[in-house]
Amino acid sequence: MKKEKIKVAVGLSGGVDSSVAAALLKEKGFDVIGVSMRIFDGSVPIQRSKKHTCYGPDEDQDIDSAASICKKLDIPFHVINLKGEFKNHVIEYFRNEYLDGRTPNPCIVCNRRIKFGLLPEKAKKAGIVFDLFATGHYARISEFEGRFLLKRPIDLLKDQTYFLYALTPDQLSRTLFPLGEYRKKEVRDIARSIGLRTSGRHESQDFISGNDYGLLFRDGEIKDGDIVDENGNVLGRHRGIVHYTIGQRKGLGLSYPRPLYICRIDAERNRIIVGEKRALFSKGLIVRVLNLIAVDEIDRPYRVKVKIRLQHKEADAELLPYKDNRVKIIFNEPQMSVTPGQSAVFYLDDTVLGGGIIEKALT
Predict the structure, then answer these.
(1) Same domain, 239 and 292
(2) Which of 40, 99, 240, 316 has the greatest number of beta carbons closer than 10 A?
(3) 304: phi then psi, degrees, rounded to nearest 5
(4) Residues 340 and 356 both lie in one domain
């Protein structure tokens, strides 16, 4: 197939990264189509924000920006309605995890189920013809002996492989990441050079406006309860477990001679357990809901680097097989704030071996 005949649908967020991804692909001779998804259904009373958020009423501005980008690049543009799918697969997952005392990452679920799953699938069902799907994520894909590998980008400061580890091999085989070979400054320079108005746009950071997750829960779902120490002594009251996460220190309203941090969340008893900083350190963790990319199974120990949240500096560790399709991670040095519900991603040099959901910390 000649390159000029290859049709690529680019998922457009309305920001600089996805717009430059579309521009680069068109420059390389691909037949480019812009697609955006509509996910906000207005059922949550989220106020408009000065910052662009993933889920909220600012969506119309993002879609207008994406339409403007496509007009500038002279490529077709389509909007795909995924309101119901997003609510079922992302919002409900997010709510249920928090109610069970875990701290989920909605971006990881959205990428696998919505952005790289239902968006291209529903676009094709709508009659939009394309061969490959692309986004403005900072990551790279390479093929080795018939296996598609997910690799870190050139710009490690913008590395987004943590958000992408849950993509399936099939999804990777049909995906392009044009920005994987560029640095962020270069991307902004490209946008400026071709007159894209997104060149100076700030990036969206929050899931919803103000990160006020309480808006996603129904009356009666959020209940106050006890804050206790590691011996069960009641030290204060919390305003609902959905407002808290492991490692949190601020907002506890406790009077104590030394700083206290959230060490565990007991959803069954609606309690938050606090302790001193030493109690936050774990020697390892158990990971469930595995998605492996570079190997078919974990059948032997691997020396890896592990990332346990987005802002976490990767830690050296041993990755070990465990029972019931789970794995065990043992850190070289204890790590702080291992949080159930977050993802742990395993790296072999610049390649993502795989990852999964943190089930529990090992003390």
Answers:
(1) no
(2) 40
(3) -135, 170
(4) yes
Reported as a single tens digit per residue, the pLDDT across 272-313 is 999 999 999 999 999 999 999 999 999 999 999 999 999 899
Residues 40 and 180 in one domain: yes
Q: How does pLDDT run across 39-92, given as a tens digit for each residue? A: 999 888 887 766 678 888 889 999 999 999 999 999 999 999 999 999 999 999
Cβ proximity of 286 and 264 under 8 Å: no
Answer yes or no: do 109 and 159 share one domain: yes
147 with 162, same domain?
yes
Last residue of a domain, one of 211, 235, 259: 211
CA angle, residues 69, 70, 73, in degrees to nearest 5: 90
Cβ-count burial of 145 within 10 angstroms (0-12 exposed, 13-18 middle, 19+ buried)? exposed
Residues 22 and 143 in one domain: yes
Say whether both 337 and 357 belong to one domain: yes
Sorting pLDDT into bands at 50, 70 and 90, what band is 1? very low
- Total structural domains in the chain? 3
Helices 16-27, 59-73: crossing angle, 10 deg rounding: 20
Instruction: Let me know: does 261 contact 279? Beta carbons within 8 Å.
Output: yes
Q: What is the pLDDT of residues 146-176, one digit of tens each?
A: 999 999 999 999 999 999 999 999 999 999 9
Distance CA 71, CA 251 (A): 47
- Same domain, yes or no, for 260 and 293? no
Contact between residue 273 and residue 262 where contact means Cβ atoms under 8 Å apart: yes
Q: For the chain, how are helix, strand and coil distributed in percent, rounded to 5?
A: 30, 30, 40
The domain in which residue 252 lies consists of 223-275
CA separation (Å) from 76 to 32, 114, 117, 278? 8, 21, 21, 56
CB atoms within 10 A of CB 302: 18
Q: What is the CATH number of the domain that holds 289?
A: 2.40.30.10
Paired tokens of 152: 């870190």
Average pLDDT over residues 181-200: 90
Residue 204 pLDDT: 61
Nearest partner of 167 among 119, 125, 97, judged by Cα: 119
